[in-house]
Amino acid sequence: MPHILVVEDDKLTAQLFEIILKRRGKFDVTVTDDGDKIMEILNSGNVDLIIMDVSLSGTIVNGSQVDGIKLSKMIKENERTAKIPIILATAHAMRGDAERFLEESKADDYISKPITDHNFLIEKIKRFLK
C-alpha cells in the first residue's frame, strides 16, 4: 500500500486529507508538521509521495523555521529524497502563484485548497505512483 506523507499545520485540513486519502485512496497516511518527524520519516525511505502545505507556520527543520516552499526545495535537493513526488497544497490560488511556487520549491504539482473534488486529488496522486 503506497505511503503518503501529508505535511500540514492546520488540524482540520490535516484530518480532511487523512480521511480522503485513507477512505477514497486506500493509502497508508502519515500527517505531521513536526520537522524532526518529517525528516525521520523521509530518512526511513518509506514515503511514496508528499502532500505539502505551502504556508506552514511553525515547522522547524535543522534549527530553522521553514514554509512548504523551503521544505520542498530541501527535499528535492537531497539526493536520497529527490525522486519523491511532492504535490503542493495551497489556498493561494492567484494567477501565477502556483507556477511561481512550483518553480521555487521544485515540487512536481499543486492542488488548491480547500479540496472539493476528492476524486481529482486521488487521481492526481495515482498518476505519480505509476
UniProtKB/TrEMBL annotation:
Spell out the Gene3D superfamilies in the cross-references: 3.40.50.2300
Signal peptide extent: none
Q: Which residues form a coiled coil?
A: none
A Pfam family per the record: Response_reg
Write down which residues bear the modification named 4-aspartylphosphate.
D53
Entry superkingdom: Bacteria
Among SMART domains, the record links this protein to: REC (SM00448)
The molecule here is called CheY chemotaxis protein or a CheY-like REC (Receiver) domain
Which keywords label this protein?
Answer: Phosphoprotein
Q: Which biological process terms from the Gene Ontology are attached to this UniProt entry?
A: phosphorelay signal transduction system
Q: Which residues form the Response regulatory domain?
A: 3-128
